[in-house]
Write a structure and sequence with these properties.
Layout (H helix, E strand, L loop, with lengths): L1 E5 L4 E11 L11 E6 L10 E9 L2 E7 L6 E8 L5 E10 L5 E8 L2
Antiparallel strand pairs: 1-2, 1-8, 2-3, 3-4, 4-5, 5-6, 6-7, 7-8
Length: 110
Amino acid sequence: YTGTFSDAQKPVMNVTANLTQSANGDTNGNFTLSGTANLGTNPCFISPVTVVNSQVTGGSFTLTYTDNTTGNSVTATGSFSTDGSTLTVSNWSLTGPCGADTGTGVLSKQ
């Protein structure tokens, strides 16, 4: 998936995400995502960064990327299109030494 995370003022980071959904759900029917992402030239991250936490429930997802070198994390929540071709990020939040930021984004399957 590729796309952009933007805050209220401007695009903040280009995202190229390689994601794989678990084959089996847990006892509650939730699945997980694994993978990495390149977050462009954003100085808060040394790419690639790894998914450290995730949950997929129906058409919704939450995932967190953490850069263990810089100590920064970005958590994204949103939904999949019915055919899985688009991830609509209704909210992402940046935490860590770079400071806090939030916004939205759209990623398209390549």
